[in-house]
Design goal:
binds fe (ii) ion, single chain, seven-stranded antiparallel sheet, 1 helix, 4% helix, mainly beta, 288 residues, Jelly Rolls
């Protein structure tokens, strides 16, 4: 392997306003024309609003097959219910890492009638060999997600991966994901190892963060996603936040690319067109 290298920024992308489910307004960051995918990541949606009209209709009954959906709630409550009898409520700070495998049909509905709803849903592909595994959940409340204070105004919640010896609760050997919720006061820094060869991005949801070192460094603003260049670590620095009382907050996500053919349509992500047709047929015949 080459000598150690610090990741820079290859592109900065803003999300695209869209709606999904029964009319939930959200911002699609990965999975839109400017960034169709970032193998193994298929989609990243940010939802965030104080207006119940933007989210109240929720995501009624819909299927998934062949990949994983990761929901990370920042504010608000979402009730989840599937056709295998699994049900739960995602509260602020909780994560649901759902391996759809060979198929689930579920609904994701806001539990609240008013107030702020905010969070992310990330779709991660599964390798061909795992697409038809049994559905599985890794679901953790906020008290189960370790937070580490690195000093100097840098704090990290470790959902997946490792930060300064603190390991997140999620296990997924196929893509070996890192999923960190990073908080940086102005001037606070974080130097984080990320496996070389893994795809990686930083999405800033409050304030602004300086990413990288030297010529390839860039400042990433609120609601912007930075695709990182390859390397074995990333350096982040919090900028002056735009408003008093806020800090800089971002998710830092990385994973091993699968480099496999992808055949996808709506809620099905398979390897071939034949498997995609099979998925539609199985869903219509109630085999999920
Ligand atoms: Fe879903």
């Amino acid at each position: 392997m080459s000598t150690p290298s610090i990741r820079g920024v290859s592109r900065v992308i803003r999300g695209m306003p869209t709606s999904d489910g029964a009319g939930v307004k959200l911002t699609r960051v990965i999975g839109q024309p400017r960034l169709p995918d970032l193998d193994p990541f298929l989609m990243l949606d940010e939802f965030g609003t104080d207006n119940p009209g933007d989210y109240i209709a929720g995501f009624p009954s819909h299927p998934h097959r062949g990949f994983e959906t990761v929901t990370y709630m920042l504010d608000g409550r979402m009730r989840h219910r599937d056709n295998h009898g699994h049900e739960g409520v995602l509260v602020p700070g909780s994560v649901q890492w759902m391996t759809a495998g060979r198929g689930i049909v579920h609904s994701e509905m806001p539990e609240q009638q008013e107030g702020r709803m905010r969070g992310f849903q990330l779709w991660i592909n599964l390798p061909a060999r795992d697409k038809m595994t049994a559905p599985k959940y890794q679901e953790f409340g906020p008290q189960m997600i370790p937070a580490t204070d690195l000093g100097g105004g840098a704090r990290v919640k470790v959902i997946a991966g490792q930060v300064a010896g603190v390991t997140g609760p999620i296990a997924q050997p196929a893509t070996d994901p890192t999923y960190l919720d990073v908080e940086l006061e102005p001037g606070a820094t974080l130097s984080q190892p990320l496996a070389a060869g893994h795809s990686a991005f930083l999405y800033v949801y409050e304030g602004a963060v300086r990413v990288g070192a030297g010529e390839s460094a860039a400042t990433v603003g609120t609601h912007e996603l930075a695709v990182l260049t390859d390397g074995d670590s990333v350096q982040l620095e919090g900028r002056e936040p735009p408003r008093d009382g806020t800090v800089n907050r971002a998710i830092l996500v990385a994973g091993r690319p699968l480099r496999e053919p992808v055949a996808k349509h709506g809620p099905f992500v398979m390897s071939t067109r034949e498997e995609l047709i099979q998925a539609f047929q199985d869903y219509q015949n109630g085999k999920f």
